[in-house]
Specification:
454 residues, Growth Hormone, Chain: A, two-stranded antiparallel ribbon, 21 helices, 4% strand, globular
Length: 454
């Protein structure tokens, strides 16, 4: 059975140790380059006068994040040359981080606009060079993610899976704030070349965390051959779980549908139907939402430690789906213009907000808190399903299945809104959480299997 933390002292022990400090730093290193190859890069392109058509093509930069399972077996099989003393996991993380620092410096130096390069056989448009550098950064970022996920799976005892997932979310979200809003502010004031240079320097914090991170106790033997690295992760997974392996994959696909479907339509609903300003929505989601996601992730880690993984999944899954009910209330009440308060805040000056804005912030904040709960429990579940010998490949595969949830279920949400209306859509996002929850009794054996790392 899953070990549980039964006292406050033991929860402190779970959260405050060298492993958690390392995972916090590695989560920061994982989150930083993501924004620098997505939202922040788009802001730089817009400021540089790049056309909307060309900016759209930069969506291809994110391809490595979707295909990372293809080279994950290589990272399971081989140790990086010259970095052997750091171990297989930390060695690859350091290699990826050093490459990321160089790639970000190259992006800062290149900038999106410049003179085309006349090469021997063809002319390379400068914007394409910048795009290739961004894709290189995304590839190195995805590679880093593969090994950080594997390291986290290897180093954590079962009782710390939830706390480890929470600390990873903490570092990841803090990095996204720095590389998102922080880098955009620096870009507006100092220029994006300087901003990306600063962000490359911030990657040194992740490198330091890797160097100080403890080596997993009793690290598993690497696969002996490349064939073993590619085939055996699948074979081990289904031999261990049997027919439940297919249920696990289906559960991964279904468990977060309520979060994925509503998340894709939240901003359109708030800014169009509900009539809130972009500034109000940006503050609620980008500041309050991020902070409450971090709080929720830490609470989720504590829930896993106290209740064990199965009971925790029941709790966080139910709360995650039910939190969508707040949008039902918001659809019914709307954006009330009645002024609720007028405050004189230091640094900000006079700030007033209406009853509708307060309700919207509360609904968005509750959803973000519950999403943090769900993320901590779900990432702990994914880690629990990996064999340490193949953790890079198996986690990459399981997380790719999780990514399919967005691909399959985000696309039709606009049609569902048109068909059911906003209240019907929000009710549907609650109900779609039921199938995943209903699978938990059949998955108990898979979740509560004996854990070798204990």
């Amino acid at each position: 059975m899953i070990s549980r933390m039964s006292s406050r002292a033991s929860i402190r022990e779970v959260y405050f140790n060298r492993r958690m400090a390392a995972i916090l730093g590695l989560g920061f290193a994982s989150g930083l380059p993501l924004m620098l190859t997505q939202d922040t890069m788009q802001a730089w392109l817009v400021k540089s006068g790049v056309s909307v058509k060309e900016i759209g093509l930069f969506g291809l930069v994110g391809i490595p994040y979707s295909l990372k399972f293809l080279w994950a077996p290589l990272l399971d099989r081989y140790a990086p040359p010259w970095l052997g003393p750091l171990g297989r996991r930390r060695g690859w993380i350091v290699a990826a981080q050093l490459g990321l620092i160089l790639a970000l410096v190259a992006m800062a130096t290149a900038t999106p606009v410049g003179k085309d390069l006349d090469l021997v056989w063809f002319t390379l448009p400068w914007i394409m060079l910048f795009g290739l550098l961004a894709m290189l950064a995304a590839f190195l970022s995805a590679t880093q993610d593969i090994v950080i996920d594997a390291y986290r799976t290897d180093v954590l005892p079962r009782a710390e899976l939830g706390a480890g997932a929470a600390m990873n979310v903490n570092g990841y979200r803090l990095a996204m704030i720095l590389a998102g809003g922080g880098a955009m502010v620096l870009g507006a004031r100092m220029g994006y070349t300087s901003a990306y240079g600063v962000m490359a320097g911030a990657m040194l914090l992740g490198l330091l965390a890797t160097l100080l991170a403890p080596e997993p106790a009793g690290s598993a033997r690497a696969p002996a051959t490349l064939e073993e690295a590619i085939v055996d992760p699948f074979r081990e997974f289904f031999q261990r779980l049997g027919w439940r392996g297919w249920l696990v994959l289906l559960f991964i696909l279904l468990f977060k549908i309520h979060e994925v479907t509503i998340g894709w339509q939240t901003v359109p609903f708030l800014t169009t139907s509900a009539g809130f300003s972009g500034e109000s929505v940006g503050f609620a989601r980008g500041v309050l939402g991020v902070l409450l996601t971090i709080v929720g992730a830490n609470a989720g880690g504590a829930v896993v430690a106290r209740l064990g993984l199965v009971r925790a999944l029941w709790v966080v899954g139910a709360l995650g789906a039910l939190s969508n009910a707040g949008f039902l209330l918001l659809a019914a009440v709307g954006n009330s213009p009645v002024e609720l308060a007028n405050l004189d805040l230091p640094w900000f000056g006079a700030v007033s907000f209406t009853r509708g804005q307060a309700l919207m912030a509360g609904v968005v904040g509750l959803e973000a808190f519950c999403n943090g709960l769900v993320t901590a429990g779900f990432v702990a579940f994914l880690m629990s399903q990996c064999d340490r010998r193949y953790s890079a490949t198996q986690y990459a595969l399981l997380s790719s299945v999780m990514g399919l949830t967005g691909v399959l279920f985000r696309t039709p949400t606009g049609y569902v809104v048109e068909w059911l209306g906003w209240p019907g859509f929000f009710l549907a996002t609650i109900l779609v959480g039921i199938p995943g929850m209903a699978m938990l009794p059949w998955l108990s054996g898979a979740i509560e299997r004996p854990e070798e790392r204990e």
